[in-house]
Design brief:
The complex is a heterodimer of chains A (about 180) and B (about 130).
Chain A (H helix, E strand, L loop, with lengths): L2 H12 L21 E3 L9 H5 L5 E5 L3 E7 L8 H5 L5 E3 L14 E10 L6 E4 H17 L4 H7 L4 H4 L6 H10 L2
Antiparallel strand pairs in A: 1-4, 2-3, 3-5, 5-6
Chain B lengths: L1 H5 L2 E6 L5 H10 L11 E3 L7 E5 L4 H13 L5 E5 L1 H5 L21 E3 L6 H15 L1
Parallel strand pairs in B: 1-2, 1-3, 3-4, 4-5
The chains are: A alpha+beta (about 180), B alpha/beta (about 130).
Chain lengths: ~180, ~130
């Protein structure tokens, strides 16, 4: 008999080997892939997570005012791909594992992202936080060309349908020419 | 009914899928997690069981057999969907053999999402099931 086996046996008989789980909560180690959750302040509603989700657990539906991103834990395979691809660092795998529910619909999480409304026709067409975040991202590059952020914000405030009618915003047609030095 | 509250006998029923969940169920029976301290006993036949613990996707082939196993179980009976596969198909939901989520075949009492869920999640799920039974 090996010595470490005997030692393990003595140790096992002194202290109970069984976890005290329901009384004492179990803390998973770092890197544990638990339930994914959205950071509502950071999420811009771009839908990159839903594009990359292997089982298609993340879906979004667009209604009149909001984009509703929904993650169903019943479909989720807890792979962490959404966390990898999120450009805004807005979805994270937490250490939650006690997810048992009585109804299938309860096992889900999600965020509602408000839409930006077209200044001409009032039709919602683009997630508002994404528009703001994108403008901030291109801000520095725009300054090199001498274009202000507010100017671009004004130019992209038309929905795709309205922007095809030329007479509504003539300066929009000239915008690409200004980007060529 | 008293016996079901205090000592639910579980039949582990692997359907399709990758058997990851089955390993976690077996892990819950080991001395490390030891579900027998809650009176949970694994049974090899549905005629002795109170709870059907279904893991893995419901495939076209297993669908009828699942119904038959459910009818074999004496009343009152409960069904637990263990793992994402049983609940909504997970990554197999676009496969040719996939025959819909488990709750379209059997009435499910408790859902335990996870891929696979931890043995602790199984204990938690059984706890919640027993709370529902009471």
């Amino acid at each position: 008999m090996k010595r470490h086996i005997i030692l393990e046996g003595i140790r096992g008989s002194l202290n109970p080997f069984t976890t005290k789980y329901p009384k004492k909560s179990y803390i998973p180690p770092d890197g544990f892939r638990g339930a994914a959750e959205y950071d509502a302040e950071r999420c811009v509603g771009c839908g990159a997570c839903s594009q990359q989700c292997p089982p298609g657990a993340i879906t979004y539906t667009d209604d009149e005012k909001e984009r509703k991103l929904r993650l169903s834990y019943g479909v989720c395979s807890f792979c962490g791909r959404c966390e990898e691809v999120c450009p805004w660092d807005a979805i994270h795998l937490t250490k939650k594992y006690e997810l048992a529910v009585y109804n299938r619909e309860d096992a889900e999480t999600g965020v509602d992202i408000p839409f930006f409304q077209c200044t001409e026709c009032g039709r919602p067409f683009f997630p508002y936080p994404q528009m703001k975040a994108s403008l901030e991202k291109v801000g520095e590059t725009l300054a090199e060309y001498g274009i202000k952020q507010e100017e671009l914000a004004n130019l992209i405030s038309l929905c795709p349908t309205c922007s095809f009618t030329v007479d509504k915003m003539p300066e929009r047609r000239m915008f690409m020419r200004r980007l060529v030095k | 009914m008293f016996a079901r509250k205090k000592s639910p006998w579980v039949m582990h029923l692997p359907c399709g899928g990758c058997n990851g969940c089955d390993i976690e169920v077996v892990a819950a029976l080991t001395p490390r997690y030891d579900v027998e301290r809650f009176g949970v006993l694994q049974k090899g036949t549905p005629r002795h069981a109170d709870v059907l613990l279904v893991t893995g996707v419901v495939t076209a082939q297993v669908k009828e057999r699942l119904k038959r196993t459910y009818e074999m179980t004496p009343n009152p009976k409960f069904v637990v969907a263990f793992g994402s596969c049983a609940i909504d198909g997970d990554i197999f939901r676009d496969g040719y053999g996939y025959a819909g989520p488990l709750d379209e075949v059997l009435p499910v009492d408790t859902y335990i999402p996870g891929c696979p869920p931890r043995p602790e999640a199984l204990i938690d799920g059984l706890n919640k099931l027993l709370q529902k039974v009471r």
